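cron nightly-structures :: item 1 of 1
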Amino acid sequence: MISQKSSDLIEAAQAHKKAAELRSQINQWYVENHDRKRTKPKGYVYFLENQSFDYIKVGFTTRAIPDRMQELNRSTSLPTEFKLVGYIVCEDAAKIEKNRGGIRE
């Protein structure tokens, strides 16, 4: 008979594996649907929400947004993960993000 703790650990490992598979699928979709040769974006301004905050996080990246989200979710000690609300493809993402004027939810 498997103890409750062992059962919980197995369930957590399965959830972790499923999350990794989903991140991989999201990254693959992103690569397939954003032809860099055609659009040549210089960056993305992204809008993220997290149940732990009462505002929208605005940031920028020149990398794939799912990669940036994964990095943020790993580097914080928040109980909930960031979720993508939206993003903008732009020529000067750093300038737009810097001049956002404190966008709040």
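cron nightly-structures :: done
Residues 13 and 89 are 35 Å apart (CA to CA).
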